Amino acid sequence: VDAIARVDTSLDLLSGFIDTRLDLGTGINTVTASGQAGGPSSSASALVNGLSFSFTNSLLDTDLPSLLTVSASTISSNSSASGAGGVLNASGDSTIEDLSLSGALLAGINIDLGAIIDGAANSVLLDSDILGLRITANEQITLGDGVTSTGIETNALRITLSDFLLNGGLLNGDIYIGRSRAFAELGEAAADVPAPGAIGLFGLGMLGIAGWHRRRRPAAA
After folding, report:
1. pLDDT at residue 92 is higher than 70
2. How many Cβ atoms are within 10 Å of 5's Cβ, its own excluded?
3. So what's the pLDDT on residue 71?
């Protein structure tokens, strides 16, 4: 699987006097996966360039300062799994360059995390029970039973919202950026990258909201 796409999404969370929206934009994204049925190994990778992710309020169609903005020049992850020779093995790694966090929720302070290259697995960059916000880098989740199968899911960046307060509502869900996954069984293997692969928004929902609208630009070669 090899996919290249540009993602430019706006998710309107509330409509009224003050609107809140989620904006997600990237440059070129590349997703690859390799593996052969009955083969000894599988691998997958995801690359996101020019990430800009933010929650923004607008008053009478005029944008207010961002509540939270996450940006990075490059985000990537790699996952591999093998059952060759009767030995199970799985590993993952991530690279995040020029990562920064800013916005009103951080008291207007810009947190420049610079370059995170081959950082430790499951590095928590921000964890606030008060805000209901958790940001994890190089998240690695073990798959399989460890006896007849193994695998790994690697999320270069995961943003978890737990009763995240926005404009009088509570937002819950996860945003995965730079996501790859590989799985292998003794005797066979398969690589898997969720479409469109590089970015996913899962379980996002506002309590008490009547509906939401999502826009996506066509893929660009």
Report:
1. yes
2. 20
3. 92
- Quick one: pLDDT at residue 16? 58
Q: Give the separation between CA 124 and CA 113, rounded to whole angstroms.
A: 12
Could you report how far apart the first and last alpha carbons of the chain are, in Å? 15
Q: Which residue do the tokens 């690697």 mark?
A: 154
- Return d(Cα 143, Cα 183) in angstroms, integer: 7
SS3 assignment, position 104: helix
Q: Which residues fall within 8 angstroms of residue 8, CB to CB, at 6 or more apart?
A: 24, 25, 26, 215, 216, 217
pLDDT tens-place string over residues 162-191: 887 665 667 788 888 999 999 888 866 665
- Which residues does 116 contact at the CB level (< 8 Å), separation at least 6? 94, 95, 96, 97, 99, 123, 137, 138
Q: d(Cα 70, Cα 111) in Å, to the nearest integer?
A: 10
